[in-house]
Amino acid sequence: MPARELPRGTCPDMCPAAERAQRERERRLHRLEVARGRGGGPPRADPRRTVKEYSRPAAGKPPPPPSQLRPPSVLLATVRYLAGEVAEREDASRAEVASFVADRLRAVRLDLAQQGAGDAEQAVVLEAALATLLAVVARLGPDSPRGPADPVLLQVQVQEGFGSLRRCYARAAVPLARQAAFQGLFLLYNLGSVEALREVLQLPAALRACPALRMALEVDAAFREGNTARLFRLLRTLPYLQSCAVQGHVGRARREALSRLARALSTPKGQALPLEFMVHLLALDGPEEARDLCQAHGLPVDGQDRVVFLRASYAEKGPPPAGACHLLVASKLRGRTIEEVVMAEEEDDGVDRPRCLA
């Protein structure tokens, strides 16, 4: 249906009253949506905390009326609530938070797709939603209990978020304010993908000249070339959201670097490198993480805190350890909240200022 024929949402709440009442009756409220301070009795929905859940549109079913759709302003307020009040909650596991936020952001994208809205206002909502999802997925970390969070499903949700946003950019008559930054996030999230690189290289030259996109292209090039020193030097400089996007590739990059060192240095008697050198080279969080990484790949560590490269000792078993990535990701919040990062008009270094599109 052409955009001009789509209705404009009129629901003023994060969750339509009808859905709120139905889920309350059916006892399908998430515990993060339940009114606090109640004694006995069935759970009651808190209108200030209940968020519309995702429901797949059924074939042949009429589209929802405007009263069931949230307009872009309410959708943006919903994303702000999820980023500010849910994403960093301490009374729920990070896996539970990620699963809840991903589902509610999926509903945000669906509401936006089912109504008529301009490209610019759609982009603002989709950018905030995608940034929030990247942040909550990055917070899971390698050692977090997954619980209800399916990593494969979360990855699909992130890719769908990029798809919706990049289609919005393609429809827009002119490049939008944060387009360079989010095209860069797309490349970083798909680091090493030939298809992702091809799509980015097809963007207008003025957009590719923006610092955010240039930096993403440099990171991708270093990753492809196996230039370990340059790659991790660049990763140290990335802002928080960009670091969230690239986090999933850090474990593989470290494994490939370790493999190259093993091929170059391994001898029958063994050559040794200080763990501190490994910490610096691979941007690890400390000597203990360096020790664990080396030992996970069959490389012994001697009594002087040196990794010993013995011939035929290097081995790869299972997926590469991801590590906590405190230095490369979490530390870059620098006291800010996820809401502050998500709702910012531009990153710290101004990588997406419109002047680069002039």
Structural overview:
By secondary structure, this protein is mostly helical. It is 50% helix and 2% strand. It has 15 helices and two strands. It has helices at residues 17-25, 72-86, 94-113, 119-140, 151-171, 179-189, 194-201, 205-208, 211-225, 228-237, 240-246, 250-265, 275-281, 287-296, 338-342; strands at 271-274, 306-309. It has a two-stranded antiparallel sheet with strand order 1-2. The longest helix has 22 residues, at 119-140. It is globular, with a radius of gyration of 23 Å.
Notable traits:
single chain, 358 residues, mainly alpha, two-stranded antiparallel sheet, 15 helices, 2 strands, 50% helix
What's the SSE blueprint?
Layout: H1 17-25, H2 72-86, H3 94-113, H4 119-140, H5 151-171, H6 179-189, H7 194-201, H8 205-208, H9 211-225, H10 228-237, H11 240-246, H12 250-265, E1 271-274, H13 275-281, H14 287-296, E2 306-309, H15 338-342
Antiparallel strand pairs: 1-2
Helix pairs in contact: 2-3, 2-4, 3-4, 3-5, 4-5, 6-9, 6-11, 9-10, 13-14
Q: Low-confidence runs (pLDDT<50, min 5 residues)? A: 346-355
- Quaternary state, please? single chain
Strand order of the largest sheet: 1-2
Radius of gyration: 23 Å
Give the count of helical stretches. Answer: 15
Tell me, rounded to a whole number, the average pLDDT.
91
Q: Give the helices and strands as they follow along the chain.
A: HHHHHHHHHHHHEHHEH
Gross geometry: globular
Helix content: 40-55%
Strand content: under 5%
Secondary structure class reads: mainly alpha
